[in-house]
Design goal:
With 340 residues, the chain is α+β, with helices and mostly antiparallel strands. It contains 12 helices and 9 strands. The termini are far apart. This is Putative aminoglycoside phosphotransferase.
Length: 340
């Protein structure tokens, strides 16, 4: 953010953010979010500014106004979110939409294996993840005025059609595992069970902020992909992540001795989530997990195609990520027989 942009933002905040007195300094967060996010520091208190990236964007992409809306709607719910302070849709201020929210001081955990934690603390953190995820899915969307926050209809049917189309548009070679996975998902599509809840869309441990000295979740962040849909998509996304290799890149739990670490098995986490929502165990969870892998493989294929076409910000990284498409498809096929 340039000094001129920061001055315009400060002038706007004086009139639109209660208690703001100006003299802000901006520091960009270095986390990998597609919507640029800044900490605004003032002598009185700190704020967070989250904006659309500059440039030409797809119409529905980077909708920070939706992020603002959903978090404002959740202010008095059991879902912890930062307080939303103001939304700006005046392009003369920053050139793009942005919003201001409270700054929360908390711990951001990137690696779900939490190598520096005790078994008891790991167990408490993952239990808190299950509590928060269930709380998101128990929100009464009518009561918080979010009943129009996503389209109606069969969520997974719609999603499979969308990501199949996206994959075909970016396909660079025939990948047998992707063909087999796509065909299986189409053939095994479950009937619509009527569940239609708020879904986060990218629920991972690194999108949560925890209290400095406890397992309490202080905030759920990065609502860019949120909508109304099927709650098992969020749940499957958590389990999918855990199938990946541990460490800073995979951020998974594959082949770790979870019991020794104090971490639950996949089945234990799913059971905890179901208990917190008051629903029966999920009979065909393998479908939802397989779809999560298919969706991620399609996303990575798009990254690869943009790199090959010269449209990626980091072509080398794009090609590296794209190389994982066959592996994600294979993991999706393995997920068909998931039993925890």
């Amino acid at each position: 953010m340039t000094p001129e942009e920061l001055q315009r933002v400060s002038d706007w905040m004086v009139s639109n953010v209660a208690g703001f007195q100006g003299s802000a300094r901006a520091a960009k967060f270095d986390v990998g979010q597609s919507n640029p996010t800044y900490r605004l520091e003032t002598p009185q208190r700190n704020y967070v500014l989250r904006r659309k990236p500059p440039g030409v964007l797809l119409k529905s992409a980077h909708a920070v106004d939706r992020e603002f809306r959903v978090q404002k709607a959740l202010a008095d719910s059991d879902v912890p979110v930062p307080a939303m302070l103001a939304l700006c849709q005046d392009d003369t201020v920053l050139g793009t939409d942005f919003y201001i929210m409270e700054h929360i001081t908390g711990r951001n955990i990137v690696d779900p294996s939490m190598p520096d934690a005790t078994p008891a603390h790991r167990r408490a953190i993952i239990a808190e993840m299950a509590r928060v995820l269930a709380a998101i899915h128990k929100v009464d969307v009518d009561a918080v005025d979010l009943s129009d926050y996503g389209p109606p209809g069969h969520y997974f049917e719609r999603q499979l059609a969308r990501w199949s189309k996206q994959y075909r548009a970016s396909e660079t070679e025939t990948i047998p595992a992707m063909e087999a996975l796509n065909q299986w998902l189409s053939a095994e599509m479950p009937a619509d069970d009527g569940q239609r809840t708020l879904v986060h869309g990218d629920f991972r441990i690194d999108n949560l902020l925890f209290a400095p000295n406890s397992a309490d979740c202080l905030a759920v962040l990065d609502w860019e992909l949120s909508t109304l849909g099927h709650p098992f998509a969020d749940l499957a996304g958590v389990i999918m992540q855990w199938q990946l290799p541990p460490g800073s890149e995979g951020r998974g739990l594959a082949e770790l001795d979870r019991a020794a670490l104090g971490l639950p098995s996949d089945a234990e986490f799913v059971a905890d989530y179901c208990a917190r929502r008051g629903i029966a165990q999920i009979a065909n969870f393998g479908f939802y997990l397989a779809f999560a892998f298919f969706r991620m493989a399609a996303i990575l294929q798009g990254v690869k195609k943009r790199a090959l076409d010269g449209n990626a910000a980091n072509p080398d990284k794009g090609l590296k990520l794209g190389a994982f498409v066959p592996r994600f498809a294979e993991l999706g096929l393995e997920a068909r027989d998931w039993n925890g």
